[in-house]
Structures are given as structure tokens and as C-alpha cells.
Write a structure and sequence with these properties.
By secondary structure, the chain is an alpha+beta fold. About 40% of the residues lie in helices and about 20% in strands. It has three helices and four strands; from the N terminus they run αββββαα. A four-stranded antiparallel sheet has the order 1-2-3-4, covered by helices on one side. The longest helix is centred in the last third of the chain and has 21 residues.
Length: about 120
């Protein structure tokens, strides 16, 4: 049996972490949600993602980072890919429209700040 030092977060904390990621990127993707079919544990949680290009992925979130594990929802058969430190960097590598959407949001915020000053 593994001790508490072998895991960084408990199962509920992983869900909270995943939900925070979802809230941060939801305006820059078509759909993103926690998988309700794959086994989410205290060491890994799976997210189903549809990019603005309408590409689907299953993303694994673990202490190692974010990695694509499937090219459709609830598919974890494609393990062993590159890990990304943030979901933003993963999205940046797979979705040009994400980059544009995120960049446009930053520009809008900067323009609002400029108007306030």
C-alpha cells in the first residue's frame, strides 16, 4: 500500500484542480469536462476536450503534467506521449485557434486597462 507521500493530492483535490483548469480555458475551446467513464483517482484524472477546430482528445492530468492519451473522448489507449507543464502549453501545441482566442482576450483586457488610465 502506498503512503501519503506517494501522492500529491487526494481524489477530491484532483477534481478541484481539474475544475480550475476547465474554468480557465472553457472560453477558448468548444467543450472540456472531466471524464465520467475513465477511472479518476488520487493520482490521475482524465479530461475530455474538443478544440475550436472540432478536434477531440482525452487528456490525462497527473503529477507529471498534462498529456494526450487519446484522440476521442474517454480513450486512454495512446499513453506515452509528451507531457506539458500546463494545459495552456498543451492547447498551444494542438490548437491554432486557441492561440488566437487567448491572444484576443489578452488584447481586449489590455485595451480596457488602457481606457481606464
Amino acid at each position: 500500500m502506498k503512503n501519503d507521500e506517494d501522492k500529491l493530492l487526494d481524489e477530491e483535490q484532483w477534481k478541484l484542480e481539474a475544475q480550475a483548469v476547465i474554468n480557465d480555458i472553457k472560453d477558448h475551446v468548444i467543450d472540456v469536462k472531466i471524464s465520467d467513464r475513465l477511472c479518476n483517482t488520487n493520482q490521475v484524472i482524465y479530461l475530455n476536450l474538443t478544440t475550436l477546430e472540432n478536434l477531440t482528445f482525452c487528456i490525462e492530468l497527473s503529477s507529471a503534467g498534462f498529456t494526450i492519451v487519446g484522440n476521442k473522448y474517454d480513450d486512454s489507449t495512446n499513453k506515452g506521449n509528451e507531457y506539458f507543464e500546463t494545459f495552456y502549453s498543451l492547447l498551444n501545441s494542438i490548437s491554432l485557434r486557441y492561440r488566437n482566442s487567448f491572444g484576443n482576450l489578452l488584447l481586449e483586457k489590455l485595451e480596457k486597462l488602457e481606457k481606464l488610465s
